Amino acid sequence: MIKKSFVKSKKQYKVTFEVPFEQVGANRDVRVLGTFNGWSWDKGLPMSKGKSAYKADISLVPGEYQFRYLVDNQEWKNDWDAPGYTSSGYASDNCVLTLEEVAEVKKPAAKKAAPKKAAPKKAAPAKKAAPAKKATAKKAAPAKKKATSKKAAADDLKRIEGIGPKISGLLNDAGIVTFADLGAATPKKLADVLTAAGARFRLANPSSWQQQAKLAAAGKTEELKKLQDELKGGVKK
């Protein structure tokens, strides 16, 4: 009988050979010889006597071995429960023991424990906002008085040939109060003022009013008088 167990720390097998008394008899010198000790009686593995069988232990690396039991260095015996047999080449069989390679099983790396999530910190109570200081309303600076532009002194538009008191009033109402205003007014504007005043004023002819007003505004009295001598009702004679 053969028992075997793999010792991981040594990467070897512990093999126990056992042969019963009934096979070889009691009080005999029994040794295990094989390929692991060169089939030498002197190097043979001695078997100790037990209660009912002889036993011997040996450590062997994985591989295939042949062996037999030699009793008193005279009689060969095979193991009745050997895993296998093969021819010895001498009209007998040897027992075969096969010790298989044992792949080293690597233990899976221990999973690192996931870091514990830190308990969410309690939010600090919101600080009460300091009461806003009441902004002291700045007193509005006193509004600057707008400089009142001095209106240009009204000219006597009646000095213009063809303009009487009523037409002078119409022109003043239309914003034409000085000789300069009249000199800058377009013929259309003057015609519109007269037309808006009614049919009686449509007969007035303002064609020379601008020329007269420009001379009056420039203070060219002599030239104005000379021009007016050539006019009648504002129209050249």
UniProtKB/TrEMBL annotation:
Q: Which InterPro entries match?
A: AMPK1_CBM (IPR032640), CRP1_MDG1_kinase (IPR050827), DUF4332 (IPR025567), Ig-like_fold (IPR013783), Ig_E-set (IPR014756)
- The residue ranges flagged as biased composition, category Basic residues, are 109-120, 135-149
Per UniProt, the ranges with Low complexity bias are 121-134
Q: Which SUPFAM superfamilies match?
A: E set domains
Segments carrying the region annotation (Disordered) are 109-151
Q: Which residues form the AMP-activated protein kinase glycogen-binding domain?
A: 25-84
Q: Which residues form the DUF4332 domain?
A: 132-204
Instruction: Identify the PANTHER family for this entry.
Output: 5'-AMP-ACTIVATED PROTEIN KINASE , BETA SUBUNIT, 5'-AMP-ACTIVATED PROTEIN KINASE SUBUNIT BETA-1
Give the record's family classification.
Belongs to the 5'-AMP-activated protein kinase beta subunit family.
Q: What is this protein called?
A: DUF4332 domain-containing protein
UniProt organism field: Neolewinella aurantiaca
